[in-house]
Fold:
Amino acid sequence: MLDTRPLLLKSDFPLIKRSTLETLQVNLGYKCNLSCTHCHVNAGPNRTEQMSLETVNVVLQYLNNHAVKTMDLTGGAPELNPNFKYLVEAARATGMEVIDRCNLTILGEPGMEDLAMFMAGKGVTVTASLPCYSEQNVERQRGKNVYWESITALKKLNDLGYGTEPDKQLNLVFNPDGINLPPDQAGLEKDYKSELESRHDIVFNKLYTITNMPISRFGGMLLAKKLYHRYMNTLRDNYCEENLDTVMCRSLLSIDYQGYVYDCDFNQMLKLPLVTKGKPRTHISELLEQNLENNPIITGEHCFGCTAGQGSSCGGSLGV
Structure:
């Protein structure tokens, strides 16, 4: 696969610093039951990297030492990590919000039959990828039969109270199909809600629109089709300075499956670790007593993806 990393490292993106930490995003491993074209993690069924129980316990120690509001679990498919339920239970016992970045189809995999009920019982927020409400667009990005497997999973979540009960939040994630920026989030959310309810009687809470990052699989596609510079020009031409105040890296810390720390999960995929005290990389075990507020954020050309147009983050548009 062609690699955009060498093109992204040198950048004139503005200097920004970290503010108060609110979210710890934990990547539990790169193994996934899908291989989506827009995946910036390059996850798939053949990946074997998984966070160990030892590292999971260090994550929990960090959460006990810091006033973090949210733990955001991602992958791959985070649910495939054998320590997933243990980590969720321990974090929810503290009262913090736990988000599961779910691809939906995982809920129908063998051995995962009780997963949706487990998350409902623990009040886990499910943030699920559904790149379109139409079958054709979903399957172009994510593979054959994924659309209907996703619809089945959403119905199961609805039956458990997701999307209707206050402590069972169900949010969907939209990624553009191609080299365009996401459309207006509020308008697209209305379309999603109308179409999913009328077609399938499905309800959900919020829609998040996320800009595709020019890294990993999507970046390789851009290079292969000679679209990289065109896409980067789109991101740069739509740069919005106001988005600098609310980019997610200011209040989020990303942890890889080995426990090393990054300003965001995009930096994690680009092997751009958070820098502290001049060290080449930092393990979360070294930060148990340390406050990172005002620490400089490592940036690159890909950061224009988070600041283009309405802005983009793991929580969707920055403008709403």
User: Anything to note?
Assistant: The first strand starts at residue 23 and ends at 27. Strands lie at 23-27, 70-74, 97-102, 125-129, 170-174, 206-209, 252-255, 261-262. Residues 185-200 form the longest helix (16 residues). The chain has one domain: 5-307.
